[in-house]
Each structure stands twice: as C-alpha cells, then as structure tokens.
Amino acid sequence: MNASNPNPPLWKRICDTTGLPVCRDAEFFIKLNAVCAVVFLLVGGLAAIALALTRWQAVHLLPVEWFYRTLTLHGLNMLIFWILFFEVAILYFACTTLLNARLFSRKVAWASFGMMLVGSLMVDGIILVGQADVMMTSYLPLLAHPLFYLGIILVAVGTLTGVFNFFATLWQAKKQRTYEGSVSLVVFGATAAAIIAVVTLLHGAVVMIPTFLHSLGLIAQPDPAWYRLIWWGLGHQSQQVNVCAMVSCWYLIGSITTGAKPLNETVCRGAFVLYILFINIASAHHLLVDPGVGSSWKIWNTSYAMYLAVLASMIHGFTVPASIEVAMRAKGYTKGLFGWLTNAPWRNPAFAGSFLSMCIFGFIGGITGVTLGTQQINIIAHNTLRITGHFHSTVVGGTSLAFMALTYYVVPLLFRKDFVFRPLARIQPYLFAGGIVLVSLGMSFAGSLGVARRSWDIEATGSVHGPSAHLFLAVLGLGGIVAFAALLLFILLTVGTLLFGESNVGRPMADWGTPKTLSTATGHGHGAAAPALAPGAEPAHDTRGTLVLALVFLACFAVYYFANWKALADVWPVR
Amino acid sequence: MSIHSPDADWFKAPTGHERLWIGLAVGWCVVLSLMMPYWHFKGRQNSSGESYRTTPDQFKARVERFSEANAPGTKGNFEEGINSEVPAPPGDIYLIAKQYFWYPILKLRAGETYRLHMSSADFQHGFSLQPMNMNFQVIPGYDHVLTLTPTAPGIYPIVCNEFCGVGHHTMVGKIIVE
Ligand code: HEM
Ligand SMILES: [Cu+2]
Ligand SMILES: [Cu+2]
C-alpha cells in the first residue's frame, strides 16, 4: 500500500479505507460523470421495460410509433450515454489514484462533460419529439433531424476531450515521476480502452459529419454501403472499448475483494495489446451478408482481425479467475478443485457482480458472438433477435453488470457514504444477472426461429414463426421484468445512499465481506507470505479449478459452434 | 495486486496451466479461422456478396421487364403497389423491396438454380427467408445477387428484418416453390 503521508498536499486526500491517494479534482469529475451515467441508465431502463413488454406479444404494450422511438432511445441511452459517461469516470480514476497523480485540467474536464451532456440531451430531446425514428444505427437513406447527428457528434467530441485529459494526465504523471516503474495492469487496461476509443471516435467523425451535412441539405447523400462500413468502425470498435473497461473492472475488483494479483503480467498486458491491434477491421462481421463486399474480404477480416481479439478475451477469461484462485488458495482455501470458489466472497456484491459478469460474458456472450460472427453462419443469424440476444449478454450481462459491481466500491470510497439496505445490495447482482440471462436466452431462441429484431409485431401478416417463438418472447418479457427490477433496485440503492447513507469520512468503509486468511494458510503462490524463491524461479501456481472451468467452457463453445454449422448445412444452397 | 506497479522483472513467459490454456486457445482460434475457408470451398451455403452498382430507377425497370416477360399483363403493377405472381425459369430472377412490400411473388421450382437479384427502391431492407431463416441485406444502389437452389416445395415468407419505417413489421412477401 501507498505509504501515507500525514500531511498530503491540498490537491489530494488519502483514502481512509485503502490508503490510496485521491485527487480531489478527479474525484469531483468521477462523481459527476458517474451520476450522469446512472441517470441515463434510468432513461434507458424505462425504455427497456417498455420494449420487453412490447416484444412479449401477449402484452404488446407500446403503440407502433412509440415502439420504434423507444427502441432508438434505449439503444442510444444505454449503449452510448450510460456506458460512455461511466467510462470517462473510470479513465479519470485510473490515471489519478492509481498513479498518485493530479488530474491534468479541470477546464478540459468541464468542456468534455459539458459537450457530452448537451449532446446527449439534444439526442434524447429530438428522439422524444419524434424527429429521429431511425434507430441508433441511423442507416442511410433513413434521415433524422440535424440536431440528432449534431448531438451524437457533440457526445463523441466530448468523450474524445475526456480521453485527451486522460492521456495528458498520464503524460504529466510520467514527467513528474509520481510513480515508479511500469504502470499497473488496471491503468494499462484503461489505456488500451482509451487508445481504441480514439480510433473509434475518429470513425464516428468520418461518418457522422457528412451525414450531418447531408441532413442540412448541404451535400449529397453519402453511399449507404459506405455508411455501414464506417459506422461499424464506430459501432463495433466501441464495443472493444467496453470490453477493455470491463476486463479492467474484473482485475480491479478481483484485486480489492480477494487480493488477487495477475499470474503473469506479460500475458495480461499482451492480451490488451491484442485488443488494440486486432480489432480494427472487426466491423466486417456486421457486413457478412451485405452486397458490395466479397468473400475473401469478409473471411480475412473476421478470421485475422477478430480471432486474435477473441484469443485475448479467452486469455483474460482464464487469468482473472486463475488469479482469484491463487489468491484464495494462498489464504488457505485449498480444499478440492473448487474450495477456493465456494469460499469466495459471494455476499460481496462487487465480487458477485464481477464474477457473474465474467460468466455471462464468456459462456453466453463470447460463444454466441464468435459463432454469429462466422462468415457463413451469419446467414442464419443476421438481423434476427439472435444478434440482440448476443449483445445483451456482452454489454449488459458483461459490461453493465461489471460497472454496477464497481459502483459498490465507488460510492463508499468516493462519495464516502456507506450503502443503505445492504442486504438488498447483496442480492442485486444476482437478480440482474438472472434477468439478463433470461432476456438473452429468450431473444436468442426466438431469433433462431427467425424472429426479426426491431420488429413491433411478428403476427402482422399471419403467423410466420409458430407458437414456440411466442414462448421465447414471453421468456424475454419475464426476464425483462426481473432485469428491470434489478436495475431500478441498483438506482434506488445508489441514489438512496447518496441522499441518506451514513458518512464514512475518517474511517474505513463498511466492509462488504472479504475472505479471511485461514490459520492453515501456506501462502502458496502469490500469498502475502510467499515463501522466498530462488532468484528467477517462478512460484508454482495451482489453478486446477480454473483450468477445469476453462475446459468446460471450451467444450460448450465447440458444441455450440459446430451445431450451428450443422444448422447452416440444412438450409438452401446459396452462393 | 492489479492496481500496483508490477515487479521490475515482469516480462516473462507464461508457465503451467496458463501456458497450457493459451496453447489450447490459440489452437481453437486456428480451427475457427480455418473453418471459413474450408466451408467456402466445400460448403454449399456461402455469402459471396456478389453485387453490382445500380440505381432504384434502373432496377425498377429491370424488375418490370422481368415480370412482364414471365407474367404478361403485370407491367405497372409495382408502381401501383399491386403484387403479382411471376413464375420464372431457372436463371436470372428479380426481387425489389419497397416500403412496405416485396415485389413480385416469385414462383420457383425445387432443385433448380436461380440467380436472384435483389435491390431496394427506397430504404435499406432485410431479406429474411422463413422458415429456413436465411438473411441478406438489401441496400438501395446495389444489385445483390444470390445464387439459390430451393430444395423443397412450399410457401416461404420473406420477412423484412431491417428497420425501414413505421410499417416495417408489415413488410412480408413470399416465394412459392413447386
Ligand atoms: C433491464 C435491462 C434491459 C432489457 C430488459 C433490455 C431489453 C431490450 C429489448 C426488448 C430490446 C429490443 C429488441 C428488438 O426488438 O430489436 C433491446 C434492444 C437493445 N438494447 Fe437492451 N435491454 C436492457 C438493457 C440494456 C443495456 C444495459 C444496454 C447497453 C448497455 C442495452 C442495449 C441495447 C441495444 C444496443 C439494443 C438495440 C437497439 C437497436 O436495435 O437499435 N440494453 N433491449
Ligand atoms: Cu423493409
Ligand atoms: Cu423493414
């Protein structure tokens, strides 16, 4: 831990729980961005429940215009606003506290925040008055009001400005030598996220600026196929930003809750580098059944560009639980294959949320994502609810749940208030995970039966998909109710804590529960009391349990993947 | 911990289970990568993306010519929004998407191979053939060609699965296979 100086300079304070330095400027903007993120999560959540109850055909809540309007609203508020505001908060945290550094500039942080907020409000306003019923992808020739595009451009530029503040802080910290040696893994992951964000947002500028000018009538319509190619350079790569941020959260939470330490820094960092290098053209997997791009382009870009990023996720998916296993075994939880796992702090909502996020992201999101993104298999998936089912297990069950998990530490450590209704907080991650798994499976199975995404009514011209499709849409609806309840609970708990939580200034935060070191602990592996090793020798890591989990994962992956080839082989021959 | 700077000598090769897993993961990614070229040559379902530039007007004219040639008296139906059944011999066949219908209703024969040209007269649409659940994107300005072989007789609905406006969910056409 950081040696705490009794009289820290005014720009920072020393955390009463962790002993880490907290830059006061950064703290302010982390809070501001996080609060905004949660407000947009609420807007997106209200839209979500309305959508889920509309797609559940037996309920069919919204009228048709409002369904498409709400869908546009949901996509943007969730995928863009909630996620981006939260990510800016994470970046500010990573570049200050973890480097003992001071935020580069308050002014830049205000400018970033202002642009993002104004842009988001502009987008939401124009959607709600019915001038932008174009979905978040706004595929040309569909055209929205110019303010819609302007709002998105403002959000993108605002985010870029925040990312600039992050890099400037890194540069300043390096120059002033606020830390020694290499940056920590979490900072490294956040930096990877920031680098990808820059590339992503530049794609956004390339596609949104001409579209904005076109909506003003100043230039001719850009080509719709070109629009798709560049838009997905924004749309897909931004998912890689989310993955980096999520994986950083996994490492961070594993570290805080169980004392986990990366088994091998080279491997973890290398995997982040793979994300940066090999995701650039993954936008291809959104165009697999498009005209205008040929087979070899599609195959090359999905295999080379995508699978090295997939490899990176498979590596993180192993190293995070493995590092937890090593830490737990070092604390003495060595019984059998899974003693470390059953004794993990499951009542700690941050740990539970983070571990569930990992499982949902890997077992559902990862497996479906790679399968659907296979060039030929995409024929039996494109634009069906299978796609929506896939990303509700990545960006919702994965990223959003990881961000919620982190909040269980952000609020006590930065807002310095202990959570109210702690027993409810302990079940919230389980409830959300359960709901989202149902949503995701309901969507995926309905999609396998051919049910389209973004469709208000699948019975408009008579029954096309049969009764089982309705069963799965009902599963989606029920899961939506559970997930929405958990989302609301999360917001009520955080807002309730901000308003009524007991202050923990001057003392450590109320402990969520972290595993105690047993008296039988050997300190095997990376324990606090690691035995002295011969120079250059590696501690022997016992990660049998994780290896078994990983092998189960690989088996599920292979079964699902080849089952889809089999399903593809049964449809009409096509070239 | 992941939040602290690593030891100075952090750069080293993985060992033990971690190394084993990385090996397995790399192997699996190689399998994933090879499956696509394998299917491209050996499989019968591929999305080659064959396409040509066109314009909505040019394409409309080609569809009208095609439908008049195979079902005399149908000229002008598309403009008026009337759908027509068009039986077509193997070879080039045409399908145009427009808010909110697919024109014409193609009548094909099982076991024959067709070159299906698809384009849009207005917005992007999604060609989703049920119940096989075969999906392709339809983009204005692009003549997207699928070389298709229907395998069994039946009536196959074409659902639009790209949002194309407020009537999107009503946009269902069909292909009849005899
Ligand atoms: C309570 C939790 C949630 C529920 C019940 C839910 C439900 C839904 C439903 C029913 C749809 C419409 C599917 C369709 O008809 O095409 C949808 C779309 C979508 N959702 Fe969610 N969702 C939830 C949370 C989230 C979150 C947290 C995110 C992002 C971080 C997200 C991102 C999206 C996106 C990007 C779309 C697609 C929008 C489009 O097609 O343009 N959702 N969701
Ligand atoms: Cu359509
Ligand atoms: Cu449509």
Architecture overview:
The complex is a heterodimer of chains A (about 575) and B (about 180). Helix content of chain A is about 65%, strand content about 0%. Chain A is mainly α and about 575 residues long. Chain A is globular. The relative contact order of chain B is 0.15. Chain B has helices at about 15-40, 55-70, 75-80; strands spanning about 50-55, 85, 90-100, 100-105, 105-110, 115-120, 125-130, 135-140, 140-150, 155-160, 170-175. The termini of chain B are far apart. In chain B, strand 7 (about 125-130) and strand 8 (about 135-140) form a beta hairpin. In chain B, the strands form 2 sheets. Chain B has a 6-stranded mixed β-sheet, with no helix packed on it. In chain B, strands 1-9-6-3-4 form a 5-stranded mixed β-sheet, with helices on one face. With about 180 residues, chain B is α/β, with parallel strands linked by helices. Chain B contains 3 helices and 11 strands. Chains A and B meet through helix 2, helix 6, helix 7, helix 8 and helix 9 of A and helix 1, strand 7, strand 8, strand 9 and strand 10 of B. The structure holds protoporphyrin IX containing FE (HEM) and copper (II) ion (CU) (2 copies). Protoporphyrin IX containing FE binds near residues 48 and 439 of chain A.
Secondary structure: number of strands of chain A: 4
Instruction: Give the overall form of chain A.
Output: globular
Helix and strand element order of chain A:
EEHHHHHHHHHHHHEHHEH
Structural class of chain A: mainly alpha
Poorly predicted runs of chain B = none
What distance separates the N and C termini of chain B? 67 Å
Which superfamily, in CATH terms, is the homologous superfamily of chain B? Cupredoxins -  blue copper proteins
Overall pLDDT level of chain A? 88
How would you describe the oligomerization state of the chains in this entry? heterodimer
How would you sum up the major sheet of chain A? Answer: 2 strands, antiparallel
- Main sheet: strand order of chain A: 1-2
Sheet with most strands: strand arrangement of chain B? 2-5-11-10-7-8
Fraction in helix of chain A = 55-70%
Largest sheet of chain B: 6 strands, mixed
The proportion of strand residues of chain B reads: 25-35%
